[in-house]
Amino acid sequence: SDERQSPVTVVIGGASGIGEATAQDLRAHGHTVVVADLNPPADDPAAVRVDVADEASVAALFDKVVTTHGGFTGVVNCAGVSTLSQIVEHDAAEFRRVIDVCLTGAFLVLKHGGARITDGGALVSLSSLNARQPGTGMAAYCSAKAGLVMLTQVAALELGPRRVRVNAVSPGLVVTPLTAPAMDIPGVRDAYLDNTPLARSGEPAEIAALLRFLLSDDAAWITGENIDINGGAHLQ
Ligand code: NAD
C-alpha cells in the first residue's frame, strides 16, 4: 500500500519553530514523521521525548523508531539552543551547554542515526548564518554552528559508501521562539534586514521546503554541503 511505501523521517526539535513547520511540510508531502523533542508536543501521542545532548536518549530514540516503523530513511535535526553573553563574562557551564546541544548533540544524532538509517537515506542538520558570520554575545552558538559544518563534511565522507547523504542548512533570521527574545533588542532586526537584499526575515515553511528537497531523491547527488538560505544576507 501507499502507507507502507511512505518514507519514515525523524524530525528532532520538531515541536517548535523550523522543526514544527518541517514536520507539517513532510507529512503534507507523504512522509511518516516521528517528532522528537526535549518538550514533545502534547497533541502528538506518537512524539518521542529526546535530549540530543544525552547519548542514551538519542540511541533509544532511533531504536524506538526502528522497532515501531521497521526503519527510517530521513533525519532532520532542528534541536538548538542559544545564549547571549560576551566572552569575558560568559558562564563556562552555559557555554558548554550550547556546545553540548548544538554540536555534540548533532554528533550524537549523526552517530546513532547514521548507524541505523537505511542505506541510501539522508540526514540533515541545522547550522546557521552564524556559522560564518560572528555575532556579538554569540560565542557558543557561532562556534557550535561552525563546527557543525565540518562535522557534516566528515559524516558525509564516512557514510558515503552506504549511499547515505549528510548535509546542513544555514538559515538567516527566522522569527521563532528561539530568536523572538533577540527581536526585543533595539536594532537587531533592522541591522539584519538592512544588510539583506530581500529585506525580510525567512519563514519556517521556506526552510522546511529546502529540508524536504535535501531528503528527497532529487538531491541524490548532494552530500557534505552546507546550503545557505538567508535572503542574500552574505551579499552586502
Ligand atoms: P525553536 O526554539 O523554535 O525550536 C527548537 C526546538 O529544539 C524546540 O522545540 C526545543 O524544545 C528543541 N530542543 C532544544 N534543546 C533540545 C535538546 N537538548 N534535545 C532535543 N530537543 C531540544 O528554534 P528554531 O528557530 O526553530 O531553530 C531550529 C534550528 O534552526 C536550531 O538548530 C537553530 O539553531 C537553527 N537556526 C535557527 C535560526 C532562526 O533564525 N530561527 C537561524 C539559523 C539556524
UniProtKB/TrEMBL annotation:
Show the stretches that span the lipid bilayer: none
InterPro entries from the entry?
Answer: KR_dom, NAD(P)-bd_dom_sf, Sc_DH/Rdtase_CS, SDR_fam
Q: Which UniProt keywords apply?
A: NAD, Oxidoreductase
Every Ketoreductase domain range = 7-172
One MF term in the entry's GO annotations: oxidoreductase activity
Which family is this sequence assigned to? Answer: Belongs to the short-chain dehydrogenases/reductases (SDR) family.
**Protein name (Swiss-Prot/TrEMBL):** SDR family oxidoreductase
